[in-house]
Amino acid sequence: MKTNISLGVLWFLIFTFFASLEIFSQAQNVGIGTTTPHSSALLELFSTSHGFLVPRLTTTQRNAITNPATGLLIYNLDSQRFEYYNGTQWVGVVSSIATVPFNLISTGTNTSATMTVGTGASIVLGGGTIESNVFKGTGSTTDAVDLATSEVAGVLPISKGGTGLSTTPTQGQLLIGNGIGFSLNQLTAGTGITITNGAGTITIADANANTEVTGSGTSGQVTFWNAPNNVVGDNDFWWDNTNKRLGLGTTSPSQRLHISGNLLFTGALMPNGAAGTSGQVLVSQGAGNPPQWASASSLETDPVYTAAIPNIVFDGDAAGGDLSGTYPNPTVAKIQGNPVSN
Known about the structure:
mainly beta; 3 helices; rod-shaped; three-stranded mixed beta sheet
């Protein structure tokens, strides 16, 4: 009897406990804290002062669950987030204000979604890198790495295709290699050169263009002036630089001075610097030696000339044969031995 009273009390207490929870059950749904559970919910919990507490596990404890059911929900104490099992892996439930550790973001490929970083927000790299095939800035028109934005800063090094410089060049400055990098310098005008630097232009000019000599000709021709500031060449005035010969009227001089054509003297002929005297003749001194002036009478006793020209006569010589008097104006005395009378 005592036992029966105890069991009765126990059942009474159980009934009283669940009654105090306001458990209401219909045919297909259950409500706790409400007598009108929503028809779409198998279980509806209602309270204005309490929450629903799911199992709280560490990652190690979570991974120890054998054959978790798809949709199983826990709160991960290590990552401080709700997680559910999707049938393959545990997936974190992330809110718009949650802080997600970077190592918990899995790598994936997306071809349509866009992540927008709003005004005032930023993506901060703590020494890491962002890799992409396309970077687009404001005003970008192509799917290329676009640096044409006002936000671009820094200096692109030479090793990456840049200049290594951040200086804006002035008019006429050129980017010139200096052995270790680039320098901005202007061209220096040499003697007779003028340089005018414009906006994106450099004009190099000859400062003596109006006073310099121009002309034409071919190799070997001796140039001569034919107009102010102009020279030309001609085949009748030729210099053989190999043999050091000058040709007048010929392009193949055979002597130091080779004249093809008549030679007109309006001054003295001066072999070895001597002009000679009136009546003298030039006498050869042999190959390689300049001729010398000599009187004609001296040749009468020169065996070389008399042997070469035995019948040579000179002014003042006595005429012979049918002539009388002296040269150069002898008189005819007879003709074929017959005296001639005046």
